[in-house]
Amino acid sequence: MKPALLEVMRMNRICRMVLATCLGSFILVIFYFQSMLHPVMRRNPFGVDICCRKGSRSPLQELYNPIQLELSNTAVLHQMRRDQVTDTCRAHSALSRKRRVLTPNDLKHLVVDEDHELIYCYVPKVACTNWKRLMMVLTGRGKYSDPMAIPASEAHVAANLKTLNQYSIPEINHRLKSYLKFLFVREPFERLVSAYRNKFTQKYNTSFHKRYGTKIIRRQRRNATQEALRRGHDVRFEEFVAYLIDPHTQREEPFNEHWQTVHSLCHPCHIRYDLVGKYETLEEDSNYVLQLAGVGGALKFPTYAKSTRTTDEMTTEFFQNISSEHQTQLYEVYKLDFLMFNYSVPSYLKLEW
C-alpha cells in the first residue's frame, strides 16, 4: 500500500477519535425522535424486523397491524388522536418545539415496562395512581397481582418503577423506537381544578401549603394574616390562578407537575406517542392498552365510583369568580393542551380575544 494512502487512512482514524472525544465531552445527550413534522405513517412504521416478545406479537404490531376487527376499529380512533397531535405541533411549532433536544430530566415521567414493551408517560390528576399500580403489576413479575391492593403511597415511590431517564442513550433510542408509547390526558381546566382541590383544600397536604400556599398568599393577598402567611392553608382559587399567570412565577421555576401542561411533561411534539388515552374514556382506552400488551384477559383497569371526583359542573363553578382577563391569560398558558388533545374552549369562559 502506498505511503500516501496509509497516511490518509491514519489521519482519518485520528479525526474519528478526536470527533468522538469532543462529542462525548460537550454534548450531554442526543436522542433521535421521530419528527412530528413528517407525514403520519398509516401502517407499522417500525418494519417487520421489530424486536418482539418471544412467542407473541409486540404491542406495536397489534396496534399498527391488528388481526382482530375490533382492534382495527379502535385503532382508527387513536390514529385520529395522533393526527390531532401532529397537526397541532406543526401549526404551533414555535411554541411546541422550543428545544430540539431533550435531556434525561425530560424523560423522568416516562415509565418503562420491559416485559411487555410499553412506555407510559404519567400525568398527575389523570388517573396516574391507578396506572402506576397497573405498571407495578406488569413489571413486578408476580410480586403484585391486584392493582388496588397496592397503597397509593407505594405507587408513587419512585424506586418502584423504572423510568426512561435511567437508561443509556442507545437504550433510550431503542425503546423509543420499539416500545408502544402512551399517555392519558384530561380536559385542561378540569385537571387544574382537580389539582387545586387536592393540593390546597385538603388539610393533610401541609407540604403543598408550606411549599406553594405561603408563596401564593404572600404574592396575591393583600393584608394577609400572619397565620395565613405562615401556614399557607387557605389559598383561594382566584389566588391560585393569579399565581399561575404571573410572569414572575413562570420565570422563577417550572410549574409543579400537578398543574404543569401535558405537552411540557410528556413532550408529544418530540416523542411520537402511539396511543393518546383520555380521562373521559378512561376505562375503554386503558383496557385497549392492556389488550395490545397481551394481558387483557388477566388484567383490567381498576374502576370504582369516586364521589369527590372533579366534574365539568364543578369546574364551571370554580371559574365563576375568575375575571375574563385572567381567564384569557390562563387559557393561553394551557392553549396547546386544549388544541393538541382536541378539547374545545369551555362554554363557561368569557375570553377577551
TrEMBL record:
GO cellular component terms, semicolon-separated: Golgi membrane
Bilayer topology annotation: Single-pass type II membrane protein
UniProt-annotated location(s): Golgi apparatus membrane
Name listed for the protein in its UniProt record: Carbohydrate sulfotransferase
Protein EC: 2.8.2.-
Organism: Urocitellus parryii
Lineage top rank: taxon: Eukaryota
Alphabetized PANTHER family for the sequence: CARBOHYDRATE SULFOTRANSFERASE, CARBOHYDRATE SULFOTRANSFERASE 11
GO process terms (BP): apoptotic process; carbohydrate biosynthetic process; chondrocyte development; chondroitin sulfate proteoglycan biosynthetic process; developmental growth; embryonic digit morphogenesis; embryonic viscerocranium morphogenesis; in utero embryonic development
Gene (UniProt): CHST11
Keywords carried by this UniProt record: Carbohydrate metabolism, Glycoprotein, Golgi apparatus, Membrane, Signal-anchor, Transferase, Transmembrane, Transmembrane helix
